User: What shape does this take?
Amino acid sequence: MKIVLQLVTAVVLLLFLIIAVLVALSWAPPRPVESLTERWAPEPSGFVEVAGMQVHVRDEGRRDDPVPLVLLHGTSASLHTWEAVVDELKQQRRVISLDLPGFGLTGPFPDGDYRMRHYVDFLSTFLDRLNVERAVLIGNSFGGQLAWEMALDQPRRVERLVLIDAAGYPAPVDLSAHRFHACRHSGFGAADGQHTPAAVG
Assistant: This one.
């Protein structure tokens, strides 16, 4: 028993050491935004002051578009997520993409408030700064949640809403029907009857 305990302790310590080495090798000190702008904010990037932040933005396409498209990225992303989409859309529309606070080159909210209400207020102020009265909001993941929260809060500002795998919408908890559907189409054949909701229950 003593040997097993020593072996388990040695394995745990070895795993801890491996993780510590990997973290040390991948760690990099924080870099000032100014050192990143040359690489990540070339033309047509710009910066707009909103709520004490310099917001990284790209405003491209037709300047006469009365209802521009506003692209809102997801968690751990930036306006670069949308580059291929922007290249296609800017031929016909005004397309605005931005790094949301806490992501990309925009940096954190100065007050540290990351509630969705604060993001909605930020987006509203951002649109005001760009003189955008109404927009089509296109959001992915976290940006999708921000888009639909904005539409609920300020429906007159949102002409249309495009959601791509949007976060935040309450999903039903009961997945038994989905499991049954997956089993019927997964090649189980005659075993289907064993996976019906009645049999699962």
